[in-house]
Amino acid sequence: MSQAKIEEHKRAVTATAAQQSDNIAxxxxxxxxxxxxxxxxxxxxxxxxxxQVESKRAHSTTTDAIRRIVQREGVSGLYSGLESALFGISxxxxxxxxxxxxxxxxxxxxxxxxARASTKLTTAESMIAGAIAGSATVLLTNPIWVVNTRMxxxxxxxxxxxxxxxxxxxxxxxxxxxxDLLRQEGPKALFAGVLPALVLVINPILQYTIFEQLxxxxxxxxxxxxxxxxxxxxxxxxxATSITYPYITVKSRMHVASKDGPKETLNGSLKRxxxxxxxxxxxxGKLRP
Length: 289
Hints:
Layout: H1 3-53, H2 62-73, H3 82-113, H4 123-153, H5 174-185, H6 194-199, H7 202-219, H8 226-256, H9 266-277
């Protein structure tokens, strides 16, 4: 091998290592940010998840829901499953950002080889990168979220008060919940709700598309400001979540469905919820007064 080829090989190895390091840095940053936001918003996530799976109390207000949980389980009830959620969000964000950066890098290298004027990702390439990263994340982390949803939605064993003198029941840990799930329902239960979760991969794609379209409208009139970007991003997220929220509800219910309960398809679950609870049943936990 000539000296020139050796040097070229060294440069390629160095570039690959640098890219790998950059991917991991983005992944770690995403994981850290996810942990912080999860800690700050977890009581709201608990309320939303319980609203999605507890159909009997569909019309209770946020205040009533908080009061009921605190009376029955204490303030810690608002943080049921936090341990698994923190682990889940750190793994989820790490996997997502790592795969997104890896896919983005692959597209940029392809653009450079094709001698394209700009190696920046096009809108379509950004969507594809997001879809690939999202799908990989769902398949790898769904078991974590099944366990978390079970812990979050579970009541403190029963609504009925314990008998006088009876030993206080302890809450199950993440590991015990996982082991009980495997023992009673088998490994297949860890992938309950994976189909609606894969459908939800389109959420960030919709958000990005809505944001870009709104940005184009603004830029035709005036220059975009950081404040505009913030509000348009928030509006894009609200609209995207409104469109995909029924699948979040179905996913949560599939996560807590019993092994002995009826096995339903994605469309079957949607139809049953609409039939029994109306269209409002698909949006439980989204808008609570």
